[in-house]
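Two quick folds needed for the group meeting slides. Do the first one here.
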Amino acid sequence: MVHQPPQTGQVIVKDGTKIHTARWLAESPRAVVMLMHGIAEHSGRYAHVAEFLAERGYTVCAHDHRGHGRSDGLRTYFESFDQPVADAHEVLDAIRTDFPGLPVFVFGHSMGSLISTLFCLEYQALLAGFISSGSPLMVGSSIPGPIKSLMAAVFSLAPRINAVSLNVESISSDPAEVAKNKADPLNDPKPIRLGMAAGLTRNADLARQRLPELHLPLLILHGSADQLTPLTGSQYLYEHAGSADKTLHVFDGMYHEVHNDYQRADMLNRMAEWLDAHTTARA
């Protein structure tokens, strides 16, 4: 099948930041999937995911977080994780206006999963379900409280300094995918800023505390060989979310980006089958 290019645009959020958006339209959509990407990357890296879902009847609406991809903002930086959550709410408003009556599911990967978790906790009444990939909920959880507080204080002195390196080789066991990531001009190859590292661990702590409030249908995906965000994050999400309808699937031997690893077809089919099962009554 010939894939149609996405419709691109922007949402200008309340503080004037321009958030880049992309939409892959299904011919007769059953639902909308709102996609949130990970740290230091952009929504265009998920074109194959969006195209697959669009062929299966799901319109996919993605956006680049502020400071990422084609959106405004200091590269790979939030002053607070409240910002991407608020941005996502304004993106959701645009989606609900343009696709009235269609259920909206959220798919978030890695940092996008954390943002999605925080977002779903605030706005789950507007959503139909949540698909998490590579949840980072346990990142920093083993650091003792006093040490974590000291680190946060130190990081707050220079939050915009690039200092925390990520191992790009760990995103996929497929060398071709690693090479594509490195060559992508919209990715940010610099070390993660101190403020972002502190924000990730602080908001993972906050999200863990609130998980019993989460009641959306939940599909959780993770690679067993993930070296960037430990599998324990997805296990914690599964065990502590208040959802009565929740599924955890671990892909044996896959790395962090399960959608870009050798078993990506299995991952995509599981997503589509789960969405099919959760939209049958609405079709």
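Then this one, please, same format:
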Amino acid sequence: MLLLALIALGVPLALSLRDRVNSEVRDQAKSQAQVVAASAAELLEPPRAKVLDRLARSSATSVRGRVIIVDSQGRLLADSAGEPSGRSYADRPEVRAALRGHGEQITRNSRTLGAEILATSVPVFEHGRARGAVRITQSVEAVHRAIRSSILDVAALAAVVLAMGLVVGWLIAAQIARPIRRLDQAARQVAGGDLDAVAAVEGSAEQRSLAGTFNEMTTRVRRL
């Protein structure tokens, strides 16, 4: 029963935890991209490369991903991975969306990495116009690893609860069975001819009543 209860509670909890971790990763990427965009608004024209690089690197550490900052043409200004500036990222769908004035968060396959990535982009506004964009990319596999790690933590906790429940159940069962075993031992002694055997009156009310009745029976047998 305990195992069934843990499964009944654990499966919905694991699914909820999966959705929560996934949502938190996405929300963190969005908020971090917005912070970088706000900080970079006054650093694009003229581009202050060293400051932008420091900004991208510190942000990448927070989200455990790659952060790039591009100008209004999609040309790279700063990259947490250390790629030299000048390369065009205007063909990336999330960058195009940000340069049009609205951010985007998509999951797509990266030809460069040969893996699936979560791409989050936001525009860098200056005087109401998009003057550049910030893009954060994270490995989808890394997100899945974080989700699996959280689910394994829940499973480990469930295993501990199950083990503790089994130990407690065994102790309770042993405590309940002890008076029955002693009564059985007394009955065997009487059956072997020892009419002086007495059952200990202990345990639950039913067990004490049964032991009392047994002792009355043996007393009458001795008299007879």
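Slide caption for protein two: The longest strand covers residues 115-126.
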